[in-house]
């Protein structure tokens, strides 16, 4: 289950931030997940609860924000929204696209004490 290792690296980031910004407790983690990131939200919540035990994020709420994938279309010269990786451009039908977002997972915001 790769959600577990994702959560472990999240905690690493949160603890690094805690030492930089000097906070003692995390109440809410706002997490952006691209819909192409292959992450199962329920598995992620489960892993998050396990991994945060005994850390400053223990008992923190996990708010998942889904992000629609976006790609740069070379033909249109602008950013378009795609539903799936390797889909054509919705405007011109071309395949010269470069994915610019929606395939990753990142912390958007932390609510801390
Ligand atoms: Zn296009």
Terminal CA distance reads 31 Å
What structural class should be given to the helix and strand makeup?
Answer: alpha+beta
Shape summary? elongated
How much strand?
25-35%
Unreliable sequence segments: none
Instruction: Give me the side-by-side strand order of the main sheet.
Output: 2-1-6
CATH architecture: 2-Layer Sandwich
Q: Largest beta sheet, briefly?
A: 3 strands, mixed
Number of domains: 1
Total of DSSP H or I helical runs spanning 4+ residues: 2
Q: Which ligands appear in the coordinates?
A: zinc ion
- Report the count of strand segments: 6
**Oligomer kind:** single chain
The CATH topology: hypothetical protein PF0899 fold
Q: How would you portray this structure in words?
A:
By secondary structure, the chain is of the alpha+beta class. It has one domain (2-112): hypothetical protein PF0899 fold (2-Layer Sandwich), CATH 3.30.2320. Helix content is 28%, strand content 33%. The protein has 2 helices and 6 strands; from the N terminus they run αβαβββββ. A 3-stranded mixed β-sheet has the order 2-1-6, covered by helices on one side. A hairpin with a 4-residue loop joins strand 3 and strand 4 (78-81). Helix 1 (2-21) crosses helix 2 (41-52). The two termini are 31 Å apart. The site of zinc ion has 8 residues, from loops.
């Amino acid at each position: 289950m790769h959600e577990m290792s994702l959560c472990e690296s999240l905690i690493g980031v949160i603890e690094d931030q805690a030492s930089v910004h000097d906070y003692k407790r995390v109440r809410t983690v706002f997490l952006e997940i691209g819909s192409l990131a292959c992450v199962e939200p329920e598995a992620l919540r489960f892993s998050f609860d396990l991994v945060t035990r005994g850390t400053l994020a223990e008992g923190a709420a996990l708010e998942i924000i889904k992000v629609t994938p976006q790609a740069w279309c070379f033909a249109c010269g602008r950013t378009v929204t795609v539903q799936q990786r390797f889909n054509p451009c919705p405007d011109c039908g071309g395949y010269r696209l470069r994915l610019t977002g929606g395939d990753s997972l990142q912390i958007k915001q932390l609510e801390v004490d």
